[in-house]
Amino acid sequence: MAHLLRRPLCSAVGAFSSSPLPRRCFSQYAPLCAGSIQPQMIKPRQKAERTTFILPRFSNRPSIFREPRQHLRLLWRGFRLKARDWFGLIVFKFAGPEPRWFNRSFKIQRGKIVPTALALHKQMYSSFAEGDVAAVRKTCTDGLYETFRARIAGRGKGETVQWELVRYNGRAKLVSDRVSRYPIEGAGARQSVVRICSDQKLTRWRGDKMVEGSGKVKSVEEYVVIQKRVVGWKQEEWMVWGTTYETGLEDVEEWKRKDWI
């Protein structure tokens, strides 16, 4: 999410054909690759935003007993970056021209993000499996859409795919939420990351025969990135941007070396 708070690090998103504002993603690098929609479902997972901080699970952090200083440093940096993101949302909200202090066009509404991400996550994979390019177009940003479209077009004759969400493993969690402003009045982009843990099953068929090795239930942990543009202080619909990964201490140290934080 130019002057953006960053220059993006995942897939570039093209432009709206019907709008002068670019539908920008948070990267200048190659688009995410959906592969054959297997765990981890969208590959490779990229850093969603140049300084988007995603606190690792406890088991993935430096040991609090063997490396207490690194452990606490990671927590402290994460706290500061999350405070920055929250402050950025507040500033963006009250930067609008509305005369009443609390009656602003830009609504934060964090409570709606997780349900929206879950719905988009399910719709995205279902549409891809069904080969519904139009539905994928409505769900995914340009880079991810092009990847899925190419995968659908590349299926063999008579090949079909079935995707099933077997169950969720725990509650989905919002792990990042930030906004970046464009150098246009009332314009910007909002990007959020939701951790979704689930059991999924992908079955591929050629004619009436199941492809060997498919149809197995696999546990998947995904950091699903959703984003939407803000135009004239009004937020558009959320779309799936891809997936990302946890932030390590080495990421934070690199940001410091490059003077990003």
Q: Overview of this structure, please?
A:
Keywords: Mitochondrion, Transit peptide. Pfam families: MBA1. Strands 1, 2, 3, 4, 5, 6 and 7 form a 7-stranded antiparallel β-sheet that branches. The protein has helices at 68-93, 113-130, 133-139, 142-153, 249-257; strands spanning 159-168, 173-181, 188-206, 209-210, 217-231, 234-235, 239-244. It is globular and about 60 Å long. α2 (113-130) packs antiparallel against α3 and α3 runs antiparallel to α4. It has 261 residues and is of the alpha+beta class. It has a domain at 58-153 and 179-193 and 220-257. Helix content is 28%, strand content 24%. It has 5 helices and 7 strands; from the N terminus they run ααααβββββββα. A hairpin with a 2-residue loop joins β3 (188-206) and β4 (209-210). The relative contact order is 0.22. Mean pLDDT is 80; it is low at 1-48.
Helix/strand order, N-terminal first: HHHHEEEEEEEH
Counting DSSP E segments of at least 2 residues, the number of strands comes to 7
Rounded average pLDDT: 80
Low-confidence stretches: 1-48
By secondary-structure content and strand pairing, the structural class works out as alpha+beta
Radius of gyration from CA coordinates: 19 Å
Strand content: 15-25%
- Termini separation: 15 Å
**What would the principal axes of the Cα set say about the shape?**
globular
Proportion of helical residues: 25-40%
Largest sheet: 7 strands, antiparallel
Distinct helical segment count = 5
Protein name: Tim44-like domain-containing protein
Keywords: Mitochondrion, Transit peptide
Main location: mitochondrion
Pfam families: MBA1
